[in-house]
Amino acid sequence: MFQTLVHQSPDIQKVLAFEGAFERLFGIVRAEGGLEGGHVVHDALACVDALLRFNSSNQSYFRETMLPPMLPALLLFPPSLKVSEEVPQAFALQFWDTPQKPANASLIVGIIGMLVNSKGGSVEETRTFSRCLVELGLASNAPTFLKTQALRLLPPNLGIPLPSIVVTPYMPVPGTNDEEWDRLEPASALDALVELVLHGEYNGLFGERRAKDGMELRAAALGVIQNFVQRDEIREAIVRAMLPADGSNTPPPTTPLLHALTAPPHSPLDIAAVTSTHLSCLLFAHLLRYAPRTKTLARSIIPQPNFPNTQPGGEFFVPADGGAPPPPPPAPEEEEEEPESLLQTLSEHLSLAFLSKNRADTSDQEAREWDRLIVGYLTLLIQWLYDDPGSVRDFLQTGGLGMLVEPINQMADSDPVIPGLCALLLGICYEFNREPGEITRATIHPILTRLGIDTLIGRITHLRNDDRFKAIGPDTLVLPYPNQASALPGVPGGGSAAAAAAGDVKKETEAEIWFDWAFVDFWKSNYYTVVKGVAVDPNEAPPTASQNAETEMLVASLREVIQKQSDEIQDLKRRLNEFTASAAAVDVQRIAQLEDDLKSMRDAFEVADDRRKDVEKEQEDLLVLLDEMNLKRSRDKQRMREAGLAVSEDEDDGLDDDEE
């Protein structure tokens, strides 16, 4: 009844909030056992959510109470925990076998996420709520869907930077039914997020099953990293860590991201390796997109030889209770060849993936996995080479032009994704080939003419009609995996009829990732520039440096204006919310005071009305008594006259007056 009453009724929500509904609802939650409670706790928390969601006035009032710290406390997270202090194990390792506990925790996490993403919260509150969500998503044994929810609700601008948050992950001991856990080495939250994206939950210890909830968790972690690297200085710092120190010939240690990005593809494919490399391409693209200085730094990355990793993950996950670290990789053999750059390595791996996919013995399902890996390489190269002539020159010098032509020549009724991406990358190589090199625009133009300008434009625009591209949204990266009867070679349990039958049942919950929203938005914003560019004569003069400088200055100026206006809008919204909240509080208090005054006036009026009625009744009684006395006096005078007694003149006059 309560939830129905407050549904889409802000006025009723305000009245109930100021009448103490929050205190009473949390009292019910405490009385019913907190997080371990049953449906009553769930319904009480749902009422709290209904009072707060989309109601800034109630959110401001709720923050003024002593109740916000109860939210993380219900999850066993200490509200007063400092950034430098470690989270207690009672929070990280809990029993989640109670049917109602995960649902109750999900409501609490939803309320915390709502408050941390709304305006008006204090710095301390934002820091506490953000830390709680980070620890729940990265360093707890909570259900996977709860971790995904926690990471998705992290605000774009965290109150504390991810590198400064130290988390202590736990790993379940195999064969103990999740009753025993290994405590792992502490690491920064940023490192834990990267490992989660690359290797999955618990670092892929139990193998890659490509379950939908696991892929959703990795996509949520990818979104957190994307928000974190919005600033150019953060991107540059991450890429610079992959370069040798200034004046030093010693190569830097290979980061997990660079290791996954440069892992060479092997046939038969391993799903875990494909997913790791594909997601590393999406992650690395976040560092380069619209970042010219970062692209320049990335061209100088010289990856070390990438040996197969026999451990279930990177060097990050090492048991803290005596487990030995993985053995170091064997020393690479000395070679006289010049070391390859990262761009060269990616180009070679893309060419190898094309060759492996086109083998005659490749099954349809394995070909789909090769396609997914190729899409990862192409999306990264498209965003890297766009508006970066230096990278275009390096890519063309590695022989990247030749491998893009064959996919574009495929039949029109074939898969449109790879031909469309190859056509877009070829157009970028033509449009931004502005630096001297062996392959010039004049070299590429005959290839474009032979392929057909209309064909290229058709391949590029046809990409948006593919379901894997159309289905992507800001919060939608993970797509259901199509049911197929054949098992992928190299997958544990694959190849047999029984495994295929079991796979058909499991594929209903399996999922995959092809694109992210950042690339889809990039494609929509820039494909028209490429479409126009492929039809331009190769000898046409490119924009001059002064024009480019003026354009950059104009863009920078407009960005500053937009940022300033955005800040002003946010400030006005905050002031409006504060005014609304204060006005609502004043209105409620004023109405209550007026109601009290009205009630007092009604009571006083009723008392005065009763007194008036009593006085009127008394007056009527006195008039009746006076009439009776006058009548008796007249009769007495008449009897006195009849008896011959003397009656005074005054009495006669009075008698005459009475008679008259």
UniProtKB/TrEMBL annotation:
Residues 555-632 form a coiled coil. It comes from the Eukaryota. Pfam families: Uso1_p115_C, Uso1_p115_head. Residues 648-660 have a biased composition (Acidic residues). Keywords: Coiled coil, Golgi apparatus. Its main location: Golgi. It is found in: Golgi apparatus. SUPFAM superfamilies: ARM repeat. Residues 311-341, 634-660 are annotated as: Disordered. The keyword Cell membrane does not apply. Gene3D superfamilies: Leucine-rich Repeat Variant. Residues 547-660 form the Uso1/p115-like vesicle tethering protein C-terminal domain. InterPro entries: ARM-like, ARM-type_fold, Uso1_p115_C, Vesicle_P115, Vesicle_Uso1_P115_head. The keyword Cell division does not apply. Residues 186-532 form the Vesicle tethering protein Uso1/P115-like head domain. This is P115 like vesicle tethering protein. It comes from Somion occarium.
